[in-house]
Write a sequence for this structure.
């Protein structure tokens, strides 16, 4: 069995290349912040980021200069507000944005997963998003002659995700709300995964139904407790609501965004160092509660 | 109306808030929308006011309705306001953790009775905007975008919009058509919009003031909004929510 365990630093260096298309896993849950921090630290650039709904991890990657293109159905801070950083980067021309819808992105990733060139659907036939989205063309159903939109396959070069646990070979077990994570990973050529715990393969065999990502696609397994912080991980820790609530106003001006990157990423050699810089009892307070 | 926040003990340990005008306003809009839902219906729920509609439906009017969120969460008990469709508070009460593809597939197959949505703007055609606003000086303000809103509008068997009482949100033409009121096949599209004073239907393809709360006046509502709407010949008068219902809305909004 191949041991794929490595540090985030090694994984990002080895498997994420400038100009790659990168799928960002986690949907409001299990968001791979630790890997994203490392991408910023290594100054990856010209990436095409793909996702259905883009959470504030995209602010980090865009502010960090990693992305030149973003394809998504939504971007912002869920339940809080708009993304100041992405809006500004799009307005200045630094970031090319292709806005579609969450279902369209889902269909494009699913086509990628199935290995077919497109999937037909009636969405994006009308309205102001129709016609403006790359990768969608009108087609006629060969059986009924009715018109549909063909949503072209998206096959990212690499997917990054965070999960509860894995063995050293990359049998990744993930549970809780998954959103688009599984489709996005299966559409991608390879998967980089950080996990809370690395367990023995014998433990995986006790509950193989929890294994959601196939080991043959997983190229790196990173042991990173709290690797989804400040988002949450089901059965492990709650979201840092204060962080999310303050993020939108904290990133209104560029100077503050720079300070945010400096204190959370560049001042640290790795994610553990960042976690250690957080107020003493914060992570304890985020302990998962069943109710 | 009982505005004393220390009255009820049926709150499962959740913090009871002071009842503000904002809570009452949101409860009124949500209750107006919840009245349009039938028991046992399957609802696809957007974030914001739609969640309060789902909560009031489940707690008071349609206890057997099925709640679905775009993150893939199904059979959710919506007890407190979620900030996102994958928030832990609803993930913990969901009886099924499916995927986003699962739930959008159900939507596309026509299994969703009602899509509940809010938006930055709605127009007289029933189109919704959640993408960008053009200011009076011609500047563009970018908003987060469709998410699943376009998909829900086109694919749900019926859509009920729910909006705050802000005349800038009710317009003759939206600045950007994110979610066109052009439903797939023989689906109904945007059936109506609820707000804190009233409910407008789009039965004729244009907004008709169909229901108002008993403490409001139809002419003044129509005048206060920016858009070209008519008053129905069979205008229905509805008693506004009060007491326990307002308190539950307050608890829901406070404990997000």
């Amino acid at each position: 069995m191949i041991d794929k365990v490595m540090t985030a630093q090694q994984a990002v260096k080895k498997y994420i290349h400038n100009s790659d298309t990168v799928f960002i896993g986690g949907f409001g849950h299990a968001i791979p912040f630790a890997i994203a921090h490392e991408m910023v630290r290594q100054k990856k650039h010209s990436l095409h980021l793909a996702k259905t709904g883009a959470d504030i991890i995209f602010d980090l990657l865009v502010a960090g200069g990693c992305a030149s293109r973003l394809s998504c159905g939504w971007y912002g801070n869920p339940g809080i507000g708009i993304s100041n950083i992405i809006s500004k980067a799009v307005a200045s021309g630094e970031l090319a944005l292709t806005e579609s819808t969450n279902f369209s992105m889902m269909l494009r990733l699913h086509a990628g997963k199935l290995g077919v060139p497109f999937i037909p659907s009636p969405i994006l036939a009308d309205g102001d998003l129709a016609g403006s989205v790359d990768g969608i063309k009108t087609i006629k159903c060969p059986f009924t002659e009715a018109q549909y939109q063909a949503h072209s396959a998206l096959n990212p070069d690499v997917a990054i995700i965070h999960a509860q646990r894995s063995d050293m070979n990359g049998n990744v077990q993930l549970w809780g709300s998954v959103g688009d994570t599984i489709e996005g990973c299966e559409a991608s050529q390879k998967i980089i995964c950080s996990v809370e715990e690395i367990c023995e393969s014998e433990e995986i065999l006790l509950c193989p139904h929890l294994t959601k990502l196939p080991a043959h696609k997983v190229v790196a397994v990173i042991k990173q407790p709290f690797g989804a912080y400040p988002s949450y991980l089901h059965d492990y820790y709650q979201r840092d609501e204060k962080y999310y609530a303050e993020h939108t106003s904290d990133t209104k001006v560029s100077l503050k965004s720079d300070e945010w990157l400096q204190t959370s990423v560049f001042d640290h050699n790795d994610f553990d160092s960042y976690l250690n810089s957080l107020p003493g009892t914060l992570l304890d307070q985020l302990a998962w509660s069943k109710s | 109306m009982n505005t004393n926040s220390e009255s009820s003990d049926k709150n499962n340990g959740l913090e009871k808030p002071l009842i503000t005008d904002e809570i009452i306003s949101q409860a009124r809009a949500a209750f107006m929308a919840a009245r349009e839902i039938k028991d046992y219906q399957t609802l696809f729920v957007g974030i914001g006011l739609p969640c309060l509609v789902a909560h009031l439906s489940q707690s008071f009017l349609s206890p057997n309705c099925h709640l679905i969120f775009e993150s893939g969460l199904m059979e959710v008990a919506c007890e407190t306001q979620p900030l996102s469709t994958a928030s832990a508070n609803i993930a913990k009460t969901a009886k099924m953790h499916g995927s986003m593809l699962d739930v959008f597939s159900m939507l596309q197959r026509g299994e969703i009775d009602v899509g509940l949505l809010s938006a930055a703007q709605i127009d007289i055609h029933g189109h919704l905007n959640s993408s960008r606003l053009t200011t009076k000086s011609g500047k563009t303000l970018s908003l987060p975008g469709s998410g699943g809103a376009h998909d829900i509008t086109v694919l749900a068997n019926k859509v009920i919009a729910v909006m705050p009482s802000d005349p800038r949100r009710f317009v003759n033409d939206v600045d950007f058509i994110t979610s066109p009121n052009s439903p797939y096949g023989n689906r109904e599209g945007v059936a109506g919009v609820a707000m804190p004073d009233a409910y407008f239907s789009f039965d004729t393809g244009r907004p008709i003031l169909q229901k108002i709360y008993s403490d409001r006046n139809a002419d003044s509502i129509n005048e206060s909004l920016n858009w070209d709407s008519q008053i129905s010949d069979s205008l229905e008068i509805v008693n506004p929510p009060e007491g326990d219902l307002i308190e539950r809305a307050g608890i829901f909004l406070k404990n997000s």
Remarks:
- The longest helix of chain B spans residues 21-34.
- The CA atoms of residues 21 and 33 of chain B lie 19 Å apart.
